[in-house]
Structure formats: C-alpha cells, structure tokens
Amino acid sequence: MKHTLKYIFSSVLLFSMFLGHTQETSTKTVTKEKPKTETAKPALEEVKKDSIKTDRYGLRVGVDLYKLTRGLYDKDYKGIEIVGDFRLTKKYFIAAELGFEDKTTDDDRLNSTATGTYIKGGFDYNLYQNWLDMENLITIGLRGGFSTFSQQLNSYKIYNANPYWGEQPPVAAGQKYTGLTAGWLEVAMGLKAKVFNNVFVGFGVQLKMLVANSKPSGFDNLYIPGFNRTYDGSFGVGFNYTVSYFIPLYKKKTIIPQIIETPKN
Q1: Contact 142, 123 (CB under 8 A)
Q2: What is the pTM of this model?
C-alpha cells in the first residue's frame, strides 16, 4: 500500500510538471506572435485613413441677374450679361463676360444715351480650400475689357457764369455719335456657392481702370457699356449677382494622405 501511494504521488507530480511546461511554451508562442499583429495594424490604419478627392473640370455658364432685372425698376436702363468660366487647373479658371447695355445718363449739364456691346476676358484664382466633394469658390482675378458703342446727345445746358436771369432751358440735340470704342483693365473679386446639383449662385465686385477711350465731339463719355459710369475720370466700379450652371466634362482624382500620430510610450 505504501508503495502504491508513493507511485500515485510521483505520477501526479510528474503530470503537474509536464502541464506547467506546456502552459509556459504556449505563452511564449503567443507572446512571439503578438508583435506581428501590432506591427501590421498601423499599415492597415494608414491605408484606411487616406482620402481620395475627386475634382470635376468643365464649363460654367450663367447670367447676371442684376443687369437682367434692373430694367424692371429703372426706366433709363436695359442690359444683359452672360458669364462663363472654364477650370484649367486645381486653382485657376479662364473667365469671360459678354454683354449689352443701353443706359441714359442725366448729368447736371447734359443728357446722353450710351448703347453698345462689350466683352471681357481673363482668369480667376480660387483662394478657398474646399473639403471633400465641395466646389465653392472665393476668387480674385484679372480682366481685360473692350467695348464698341454709340452715344446720343439728347439735350444739354449752356453754362452761364452770371445767371442773373436764371438758368437757361436745356437745348434739345438728338445728335448721335457712332463707332466709339473703349478699353480697360479690371481686378475682379467674387464668390460662388453651390446651392443645388451643378447650380451656383455668385456675387462679384470689379475695380476698373480705363486705358483707351474714344470720345464724341464736344462732350465726354459719361457711361461706357461694360465699364459703367466714368465718374469724370479713368476709374470705375461694378458688381454683379449671378446664377450659373456647371457642365462637367471630365474628372481628376487626388489622394490626400492623412498623418497618423504614433502613440507615445
């Protein structure tokens, strides 16, 4: 009996030592494989966090609502302007405007009507950094403008340095001068926001400098189509309120990598 108990006790002890050795070996095996999983994880995270941005390129065509609707409340004005731009690169756009204006200006000394067409062309640079799939613009650009027009002198007043008997009545003229031209440079600033799919609403301001101006005989051009009022000088201002439609032609994809911060130990 004594030998039997000794044999059982020895067998249990041997089995316990074998089981402990097996658990230690398994733990070492798991510990060795764990770093491989941790090493591969950041690579997977880096691929998942990269973003693909799709930029659309095409033609945007619209109309200036300000000029189109101004004739409804201003009896002395009729006009229309077509605006357009084409995206060349990520930030640069070719831009152009084509229009017609008929404007009667009533000054202190004369009343005249300017009628003609104009064209402006140049480029815009987009200052706005869009998020993914956004296409809004905040732009600054440069234009060159050219106008061909006519001026009709409707009436004028003779200047009297000593108006003892009061002002003399206006003199009806009705004389028309054709074949007039003007050229100018302008800095254009504006924004365009996407409100619906491919539909944009925009607002722009232009600062203009007249570089060429053929004047009619006997008086100055008070208003030049496309340039606006001359303000008795070479500088002018203008603004527009546009609605336009974008016609996509092709797309370009850009991969935007995201920086992954390494956890500190």
Answers
A1: yes
A2: 0.73
